[in-house]
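Possible race condition, two jobs.
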Amino acid sequence: MSLAGHLHELGLPDLLQIVAMAQKSGRLDLTTRDGEGLIVFRAGRIIYAASNAARETLGSMLVCRRLISEEALRQALDRQHRSREERRLGSILVQMHAVSQDALEAVIYEQVQRVIGDLVKWRDGYFKFEAMEIPDHGEIGVDAREFLAQDGFNAHKIALELSRLADEARRTPAAMAVPTPPETAAPGDAASARKPVTDGGTPPSSSLGSILAVQPVTSLTAEATLEVLRAGAAVLSRGVLLLVERFGVTGVGQFGLGEGDKAVDEGIRNLWIPLDGASVLSDVVASGTTFRGPLPHNEVSELLVGELGGGWPAEVVVLPVKVGPTVAAVLYGDTMPGGKAIPALAQLEGRLEEIGSAMAVPDTPRPKRS
């Protein structure tokens, strides 16, 4: 089974449905003028998804969701570095009883859904699905191994959910929530009971390591995330860190909005704001320079202020976190609550520049990341 064509003619939800119905194993490559995406299937189920956009690491997601502590992450990374064998960070944390397997799977699903949710917006690119045998087990020698779902996720359900979210986004384009992960399908469910489609040929075999050994992408580690939030909290009353994706920005973490409030944290992490409209966020992402001044009244501003707890600020700042020439994340902060004036930003800008430089992808193989 081989498919190739233009995304304008056959969208990603339809492609997911086709591969799921056929229960095929293989890789789906998506390309645009400046973007690349990859989805890996095993027996029609999605086990991995990635793009060349900046991404948040597993450790960062677990810490920012308050599922593990910074100390637990540090200990797990230390064990991972000292291990003679390739061990996934998630499995180490589960063995440490720092996080449950169900919670870990939910976070991995969130990352897969985020990536595919971004890829589904591509309209001007090309796709190619290549069927191949994907082994049940294999050594993964790259960072991508952390987001590999061994049992896979139901591609049919993801396709339906993405179609629903796309419809909602067209009606309310300012925000998109990350859905709750579906239950993992049992071996005897309707999807696994379908007879696989055969095309008369034997697909080639490929190791997961060779498939996932792609060019490293910019990764927002737990260390970088927390450093940005701490640096912002030292200067600003409240703020939110947003990761820049291809078509929008998505919430990562916050400060000044209620320490330890899981509902607030979840609201920020479910926040997604498009960059195709006029806003201070899109201006900073495009220019790579800091914005400071009154917040313009528009749909994006109202959404952001509402998510931060309301109260229109007298002044706001939006600072870029640049990795080379690219803005990988933005830090928004303002004078609320209390109307405390924003001080000089030179020191904060310098700290964000240092953090961005440390996030740069080196030419040599990278060490394991948090």
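Job #2 (started ~2 s after job #1):
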Amino acid sequence: MTAVAGLFDPASFSSGLALAAAASILAAAFLRGLTGFGFALAAVPLLSLFLAPVVAVPLVICLQLAGNLFEIRTSLKGCHWPSLSWLALGALIGTPLGMLALALFPASAARLAIAAVTAAALLILTRGFAFRLVPGAQATLPVGALAGLFNGLAGMPGPPVIAYYMASPVSRIAMRASLNVFFLINAIIALVSALPLGLITWQVALCALAGLPLMFAGQWLGLRYFHRGSDRTHRVIALAALGAIAFGAAVKGLSDLL
């Protein structure tokens, strides 16, 4: 936890570390505002470049919890509840298991697993795969469980659920709203799972509080650009974000192993 403590300890304060963390949070929040997802997908790899995963992941969980409240009232009205309920149930099963794995297994293995799943989802989507109807419980529950596993393991529940909604016949407005509510539910589950494991420290809490203004500013700016775009633009940006995350997670995981 020394990396985070260094942000607040006058004896070991690093302005470069603080600026890097601030830039990472702002960039990830802008992506979140623009697409309706992507904060954890971008923030965890970026913050993990200079913070240990056991610090970066709880920090992102805290920020995501607050950030998803930014437009929750609108999201509750526009989300797709039939699919969201099964996804949330799956996440409730998968997140505690992922949080336990975070404390037991190396971060490199988690990054490589997430990179592989994200790359596979990206390949399927770019080849034009799509559901004719929104899938039922048998297909939706495992997606939620996998997202929950990734949420606890690396604070990145997005790839399975993003791919699920991009392949489903729902509008970008409904997709955005559903993802916002799902990520809020995941953040709550992850926070409850992290507390007994001692992963949420006072240093992490202070760092999250310091990052909240940047989180809200980035989301506000991204949301302005979202309302100016189209379904096609949104899909292109979403696919590009998935590709970048898969590449970044793979590179970081391999560098850790080597």
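The CA atoms of residues 37 and 179 lie 7 Å apart.
Logs attached separately.
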